[in-house]
Structure prediction request, 145 residues.
Amino acid sequence: MSEKAARAAGRELCFNEKPSGSFDAAFYAGDEDIDDEGGKGAYGVAGVGYVRDEVGPLSAEAKGPSVGVGVGITKDNALTVMTKAEVASTSFSVGGAKATLGLSADTGASIGPTQLEAKFLGTGVSLGREMGFSFLGSGFKFKLW
Prediction:
């Protein structure tokens, strides 16, 4: 079981925080109450299969079935409430751009001074500092600044 994989998945739910580094886990599960420089929140996640590799500005991820729930408020006052139920996904990112191909039923919202995101059953939109769209878990995002 990988604590790093669970923490990466959980912090992404709570704070929309991009995971970093390379790791792999056949199974991961975890929960955490967070109160650090990134913000405050709590999450619970579990999944089967999570592989991430990062080389410079390039990263690739592959995930198997997973579930999770997260609530967080970032240091710049963005509030996020999100649930995740994913069958599988693969994603590639270069710098601030990320493309994902997968099947999920993520549902929730995030609102802050520079960002608004809403998803229902894996379909949604992000407007503001990060622009993007998703349809049933597949989508594209890019950061403007």
About this structure: The chain has a mean pLDDT of 94.
